[in-house]
Design a protein that fits this description.
Length: 278
């Protein structure tokens, strides 16, 4: 259930390198990667022994985003931005992206499941998946295991799992699980305010597959947005699975949002680590 495709991890790193400072991009190689999948077991063990005891578990999902944004937007975006966060933090690794998430009832279909390509799993399976992944990382010596979810629908599930694990591990255990809600929340607050200050309306920004969503994708994985079709095709609405208007979306706007997510996440994680280890 965790994404294990090497080419997918490579895509994330390649895309993240486009957003890194040149020096950082130039010095990144397989053994220097923050992506767990790209290291050998021995390399990872050495990293942990030398202080890389924080790991991010990016959570995506496969869901429809109308006719102009690809189904895997959350997976790619979560992996790319998690890599940027890890690079900025230092001593931090990134787990494989969790790609299978709850998206609502399957039969009869509800919400996004009414549109082709959306994948939904039961909430219990999703929470068990996160529990198993976190327990694995704790076993290997990670001390701060952080869930980073790119989709609003399962934020509370992240909290549930972190609380359950921490109760089970006990207050004296050196490992802790954390649900980093700041990562997602900032896209619904400060980033929306940024867009409004530049003259974009709430109707454009939207709640799903609108200006906000499309701009973030143009900044991270532009090939997943059908820009040409969007500029000439019909404007989709709620019946098409879209709540917003992405017509004026740009990579420049998206970079504002990505920077908001990186900064908010890094600050929140540093606060967690300072409180935990000082």
């Amino acid at each position: 259930m965790l994404s294990g495709a090497g080419h997918f991890a490579g895509l994330l790193v390649a895309a993240a390198s486009l957003l890194m400072p040149p020096v950082m991009a130039a010095t990144s190689g397989a053994s220097a990667s923050v992506m767990l999948e790209e290291l050998t077991s021995t390399e990872l063990r050495s990293r942990i022994e030398h202080g890389a005891t924080t790991i991010l578990i990016p959570i995506g999902g496969v869901e429809q985003s109308g006719p102009y944004i690809a189904l895997g937007k959350h997976n790619v975006r979560a992996g790319i931005i998690a890599a940027m966060i890890a690079q900025k933090l230092g001593n931090t690794m990134v787990a494989p992206v969790v790609s299978y998430v709850p998206e609502g009832a399957v039969n009869p279909p509800a919400g996004h499941m009414r549109f082709s390509g959306t994948i939904s799993i039961p909430t219990s399976a999703f929470e068990a998946l996160l529990e198993g992944a976190a327990a694995s990382f704790r076993q290997h010596g990670f001390r701060d295991i952080i869930f980073i979810g790119d989709h609003g629908g399962y934020q509370q599930n992240e909290v549930n799992v972190a609380q359950k694990l921490n109760r089970a591990w006990g207050k004296d255990d050196p490992a802790r699980a954390h649900a980093l809600l700041e990562y997602y929340d900032i896209t619904q607050t400060a980033f929306v305010d940024d867009l409004k200050k530049q003259g974009y309306s709430s109707a454009e920004i939207g709640l799903h597959a609108g200006l906000n969503d499309a701009s973030l994708m143009l900044a991270t994985a532009p090939s997943m947005v059908r820009v040409e079709a969007m500029s000439h095709g019909p404007k989709p609405g709620v019946a098409d699975g879209v709540r917003g208007d992405a017509t004026r979306a740009t990579a420049e706007l998206g970079r504002l949002g990505v920077q908001r997510q990186v900064d908010a996440s890094v600050n929140a994680i540093r606060t967690i680590l300072n409180e935990r280890h000082h």
